[in-house]
Amino acid sequence: MRPFSWRFIRMWQRNGDVFFRLWHAEVPGFIAEPVLVLLAMGLGLGAYVGLVDGQRYIEFIVPGIIAAYAMFSASFECTYGTFFRMEYQGTFDAIIATPLNVEDVIAGEIFWGATRSLLTGTMILAVAAAFHLVHSSWALLIPAVCFLEGIMFASIAVLFTSVVPSIYSFNYYFTLFITPMFFFSGVFFPLSSFPSIVETVSWVVPLTPAVRLTRALVSGELHIGLVWALVLILVLGAAFFSAALVMMRRRLTT
Amino acid sequence: MVVIKTNNLTKKFKDLVAVDDVNLEIEEGECFGLLGPNGAGKTSLIRMITAVSPPTSGDIWVLGGDLSAHSREVKSALGVVPQVDNLDPDLTVLQNLMTFARYFNIPKVEARRRSMEVLSLFQLEDRCDSKIRELSGGMKRRLLIARSLINMPRIVVLDEPTIGLDPQAKYLVWHKLTELKSQGVTQLLPTQNMEEASTLCDRVAIMHQGKVLTIDAPEKLVSSYFGDEIWEIEAAGEERNNIVSVLESRGLEYENVGGKVHVFNVDADEWITGLVRSVEGLRRRPATLEDVFFRLTGRSLTE
User: Do B176 and B269 fall within a single domain?
Assistant: First the structure.
């Protein structure tokens, strides 16, 4: 792997500029939808759900919704968004003719994807706090967790994007990878409620450690097991980040 | 001073040899044309010289440095006009230039000054706030060329700079490129447009199937292959066969092109005028770079 340089910031700035020019198009997907899911599931379904420790269901799902929509933000940005810039707009070709190298461009993409996760997670957290659903000041660390989670999911997404032949391939990515995680990573129900085989699989998919971290930070109930969750996010993030840089160099510089 | 030098440069894609052992030396301040049919290897060559694609073998020096070791430094002194529009459609005209300047780390105030300068150079200054999709094809190409000058490059690489332009815009671009050359900016110009190559280029290389077949000044190429003029004789059937046999007996170079016979390097006009019954089927015209192009790369489609 060739290293990326500080120049990645230029790619990150470019994506940020475009986002804030068109931000109104992004609001429904990444702010309105999670709040809608939170209210519908939390208040609607929640009326029928009694949790063992007497916690309200809407409080139970807040951290999972934050982690899941942080995942969605980075994933959309670095699949459809990255592919569009790369294949249809020629944006990467234009930029790698400047002092930026492929690694700078891809690092900029991934850090921008992670920034989207941070923005989405923070917005949902703010809404949840406004509804008095957050009770611990540890929750202030949630944006940082969203950013690290975002690096991991953005890297996985870019790696997938580096090998797909067409934009239709992303249907597989979302149907077979992202959506199952949404349901089987402890967002809506505790993992222990699944058959043991599903529970075992859940422990190793990347959304699970993110949900565990946000859940602990929202409730303030920290424990040593969270170190493992954090390490898992960092290790997966670093591994997929490196792989994404290598594979994208292959795709873009033949 | 040589600003671009390639040494046994080769690029292979699986079984295809796209660029085959190319040796070039391009001098500072010269306009160097690359001619060749589609698939000749021009774009692969350009992609290697602009540090976008690594060579399979061989070396490239640009501005005195080994490209593989100094790609960032080289790219910061390079302007690239791609064949396909890759302007940023999510940004306005001015934002496109400002964002591009930022990739070169040009401070904001200076970037704005240069943006306005290159926009007015290509008569786009009143389109600052236009969206890219509101521009015509010609405006987009002018903007692409303007964008390539934002870092005040020492070398510009222009891949078919006037493709799709109307004659007015084409002459504007040619005029600006000539001005740029007079400022000492080296130009590397892959093109299919023979008129463009003859007008702008000090030297051209003709490429075919990955190889450089010849390199020289356009007018020298023409005179060395064809003398000054070409005789075109329109003839068919029996008459044509007769003409051809006479040409052969006199040892004259000729070529059958469609319904015509082209005759080259004719020293005395009477050799030709005596051959045909009527002057209507006879035409004498200056030889052009296109004739050289056909001679070297053939008349059949290459792909």
Answer: no
Amino acid in the structure at residue B120:
S
Q: Among B74, B88, B94, B132, which would you mutate to test the A interface (most chain A Cβ atoms within 10 Å of its Cβ)?
A: B88
Residues of B in contact with A22 (CB under 8 A): 90
The pTM score is 0.91
> B107 CB near a chain A CB, below 8 Å?
no
Asked if residue B188 and residue B116 are part of one domain, the reply reads yes
Q: B32 and B5 in contact (C-beta within 8 Å)?
A: no
Q: Does one domain contain both B180 and B272? A: no
Domain map (residue ranges) of chain A = 8-252
Q: Is B90 on the interface with A (CB under 8 A)?
A: yes
How many domains are there within chain B? 2
Q: Is residue B300 part of a domain?
A: no
Q: Which of A89, A97, A253 sits opposite B88 (nearest CB)?
A: A89
On whether any CB of chain A is under 8 Å from the CB of B61, the answer is: no
Distance separating alpha carbons of residues A61 and B44, to the nearest angstrom: 54
Alpha-carbon distances, residue A231 vs A213, A225, B275 (angstroms): 11, 10, 90
Range of the domain at B272: 229-286
Candidate from A91, A93, A99 with C-beta closest to B75: A99
Residue A191 banded pLDDT, cuts 50, 70, 90: confident
* CA separation for the pair B229, B231 (Å, rounded): 7
**Region B76-102 average pLDDT:** 95
What's the CATH number where B41 sits? 3.40.50.300
A11-51: pLDDT as tens digits: 999 999 999 888 787 777 778 888 899 888 888 888 888 77
